Amino acid sequence: MKHDKYSFRRALRPFSFSVALITCLVGIISAAGLPMFNYTVALLILLGALVLQAGVNLINDYADLKQLRNQNAREQVTRNFRLGLVCFLLAAAIGISLISVAGLELLVLLLIGLVGGLGYTVEPINFKRRGLAVVLVFWLMGVLMVCGSYFILVGDLSWVVFYRSIPVSLVSSILLLANEIRDAESDADAGIRTLTVRIGLRAAKRLYITLLLLVVGVSLLLWATGILPGLWWLISLPLIYLLYKQQLSEAGRASLPPASGRFFMLFGLLYCLSL
């Protein structure tokens, strides 16, 4: 149905939970083995990240509300938005408990994450409407999650960890872009000017493939410089060709986000194994 995109399950986007899981794992594994590492804190980080991811997903469609005329769809979007805010509150509660471990410096990272998450679709910022969501996700659900997880456990930041965050941050952007590509026509009809709507579907597809290839290039560079010790992630490369084939057709684009999420999960787990 036309407004199925606003159902709770679709709004929750469970395929994207791989983002929170993998990005935090990269930071956690980078900190593992250090004297200050704490397994309980690591589990809290993962829980907080998953709840935050759920919140970002659930408020994602709030920008559509002004364009919607169907009452059922409006109620779905409003309900999802309220549930998203509950997720933000839960994430904030976990974040506050983590401040006692990492110190007040963590508060700055949490505020950046909160403002970025709310600003994703909430006016007057609304990164999604401004076509900046793909860039925002790279930093908010990529670099910030990896480096933030490491900082909580170690109490310091590291350039090595920052460099390690780049491949998974790129895949975070790829996952968001896949969602935009799938919804290109409906977003355009609703007047929602995402990056894909602004640059056109053909250019968005080219960007999607370019980002996939960039993930491979950056990962190889990190391996060559010793920042990424292993090459287990290479096993996931055949999926890139499958994603390339899938985004070419109309039917393939409809399931591109979950397919991209599966690639992220496989690549991410193998990437973590390579650390």
Structural class: mainly alpha
Continuous helix count: 13
Order of helices and strands: HHHHHHHHHHHHH
Average predicted local confidence, pLDDT: 87
The tally of domains stands at 1
Whole-angstrom Rg: 18 Å
Q: Level of helix content?
A: over 70%
Strand content: under 5%
Q: Ends: how far apart?
A: 44 Å
Main sheet makeup: none
CATH architecture: Orthogonal Bundle
Low-confidence stretches: none
Coarse morphology = globular
Please write the CATH class name: Mainly Alpha
CATH topology title: Farnesyl Diphosphate Synthase
Count of strand segments:
0
Tag the structure with descriptive keywords:
single chain; 275 residues; mainly alpha; Farnesyl Diphosphate Synthase; 13 helices; 72% helix; globular
Précis, in short:
The chain has 275 residues and is an all-alpha fold. The chain has helices at residues 8-12, 17-31, 39-58, 71-102, 105-118, 133-154, 159-182, 184-189, 195-199, 201-224, 238-246, 250-254, 256-273. The protein has one domain (4-273): Farnesyl Diphosphate Synthase, CATH 1.10.600.
Provide an overview of this structure.
With 275 residues, the chain is an all-alpha fold. It has a single domain, classed as Farnesyl Diphosphate Synthase (Orthogonal Bundle). Helix content is 72%, strand content 0%. It has helices at 8-12, 17-31, 39-58, 71-102, 105-118, 133-154, 159-182, 184-189, 195-199, 201-224, 238-246, 250-254, 256-273. Helix 7 packs antiparallel against helix 13 (256-273). The model has no long low-confidence stretch (mean pLDDT 87).
